[in-house]
Amino acid sequence: MRRVFILGLLASMGALAQSKDTPPEERRERYPAFRDAEIRLIEDYFRPGSGHLLPGLPKRGAEPPGGVAQQIRRGGNLPPALEGKLEPLPADLEKRIGPPPAGYRRLLFGKAVLLVQDGTRLIVDMAGIGL
Length: 131
What we know:
Blueprint: H1 2-21, H2 24-27, H3 36-46, H4 57-60, E1 87-88, H5 91-97, E2 104-109, E3 112-117, E4 123-128
Antiparallel strand pairs: 1-2, 2-3, 3-4
């Protein structure tokens, strides 16, 4: 009985030591991100003179309502008040880029394109549109 206890203790210590040796970046959940090619396609699409404008830009500018912009960041959650108010990417741009990863969607927010996880509303990446 004592031998079984000691063997169990040694086995658990080995597993614990192994988890401490694993770097934190390998233990974290990995999320998709915009690739450089996707960012270039987005910037080219909205470049001045391309004939494409951000939705609502000519009418009211690209600035979001006060206080909301500070909540929009990588790793943050999309505020429930904005759910349904953000525009999806134009269909022809989405076609050029290709579909987003399964379980994610791309949304326009001011001068940024957000990559948002469905269900959790987690903002996993952002790409600025340099206007």
